[in-house]
Amino acid sequence: MLNFVICDDNSAVLDRLSKMLEAIFINNNIEAKIGLKSLTASEVINYLESSKVDVLILDINLKSDISGCDIANMVRKKNKDVYIIFTTGHLEYALLAYKYKTFDYLPKPIVEERLEETILRLLDDMKHTPSKFIRLNNNKTIINQDEVNYIKKDGMKLVFCTNNRTYETYSSFNKLEGCLPENFVRCHKSYIVNVKNISDVNSNKNTIFFPHDETCSIGAKYKNKILEVIKNGNSTNNLERVNYGK
């Protein structure tokens, strides 16, 4: 599910923008949520430090010591994949906004049709992004790959498991494996894991652990490979507690 963040120092504008976005999500069957809508730059910055964000909609002039451009500059130093959309009533800021790899610029007052056109173009751009997003159900559902803990084969279906929910689609492991980035590794005939999200491994019990008590199994055929990947540091987590069966 795509995570949107909105920041505007005008509460009326903020509420109207969030309602327009939610209507666009519903009308176009978009799997997305507004994780945060805020009046202050500081709240947005704190949220960005602890949460994965896909789309950031920022008012440029926030009437504070931190502007929308300042937030964008902070984001770009750490993450080049977040989609940034600027809003402002000051046309002179338009060219400045594009300095931060801006996807679009929306002049105020924001018109719902113009916002919808931007969101649909953004989704189309995501469909053609090779590594950041996974597309399901003929591209109707787009998942941030970082959210996926593991993928399970269940008959003719594939089940994508995240911390918040699962997604199902009809496809094959063989077809999928060739489209996934290298941090997704086969660990069982019925499981592919995102090694970046592994929290612990017990090789004696052939079990991989993820946050929120999610687990999946290690198959004998794939055991050496997955343990070697983790041992060589191809996981971003601290796995000092991994039991390698010694």
Strand portion = 25-35%
Backbone shape? elongated
The major pleated sheet works out as: 5 strands, parallel
Summing up helix and strand content along with how strands pair, one would put the structural category as: alpha/beta
Query: What is the name of the CATH topology of the largest domain?
Result: Rossmann fold
CATH architecture of the largest domain: 3-Layer(aba) Sandwich
| Rg, Å, rounded | 20 Å
* Parts with pLDDT < 50 across at least 5 consecutive residues: 235-242
The count of strands amounts to 15
- What is the CATH class of the largest domain? Alpha Beta
Q: Fraction of residues in helices? A: 25-40%
* Terminal-residue CA separation: 40 Å
Number of domains: 2
**CATH homologous superfamily name of the largest domain?**
Response regulator
Strand order of the largest sheet: 2-1-3-4-5
Structure summary:
With 246 residues, the protein is an alpha/beta fold.
Explain this structure.
The protein is α/β, with parallel strands linked by helices. It has 2 domains: about 1-125, Rossmann fold (3-Layer(aba) Sandwich); about 140-230, OB fold (Dihydrolipoamide Acetyltransferase, E2P). It contains 7 helices and 15 strands. The strands form 4 sheets. A 5-stranded parallel beta sheet has the order 2-1-3-4-5, with helices on both faces. It has a 5-stranded antiparallel beta sheet with strand order 10-9-8-12-11. The longest helix is centred in the N-terminal third of the chain and has 17 residues, at about 10-25. The protein is elongated and about 60 Å long. It starts with a strand and ends in a 15-residue tail after the last helix.
